[in-house]
Design brief:
Layout: E1 2-3, E2 7-10, E3 13-16, E4 20-28, H1 33-45, H2 51-70, E5 74-81, E6 84-91, H3 94-111
Antiparallel strand pairs: 1-2, 2-3, 4-5, 5-6
Helix pairs in contact: 1-2
Length: about 110
């Protein structure tokens, strides 16, 4: 990835900075519905009484908790131009996206 006053280059795409009017970030948070449903199913199985369903319920609830913990938001760099907005870069690393946005902002200011 490269940012200069002339171009913003990301893997597979090059954007001309002359057309970029602003840059912003978006956060796409993953849905928690699936893991929560899995946890609820697992907890309901705990009330089955016999050992088999109880153990299976613990496993299912544990998988739901692991899935919930493993979900991370996606951070998106959005470039604005006269033709609209473009999602230029996505990453799970929020600090990296913040650095990219700062670099693009500096390039916009430097170009005048």
């Amino acid at each position: 990835m490269t940012v200069s006053t002339a171009r913003f280059i990301v893997p597979g795409q090059t954007y001309a900075m002359s057309g970029v009017t602003s840059v912003k970030s978006l956060i796409d948070k993953p849905s928690k519905k699936g893991p929560i449903i899995l946890i609820i199913i697992g907890l309901l199985m705990l009330f089955a009484g016999s050992a088999g369903p109880v153990i299976l319920g613990l496993v299912i609830a544990g998988l739901g908790v692991a899935w919930l913990i493993s979900q991370k938001p996606t951070y998106i760099v959005v470039l604005s131009s006269a033709s609209g907005e473009t999602k230029a870069l996505t990453s799970k690393d929020g600090a990296f996206v913040a650095t990219v946005i700062e670099a693009v902002n500096r390039a916009i200011v430097a170009r005048g």
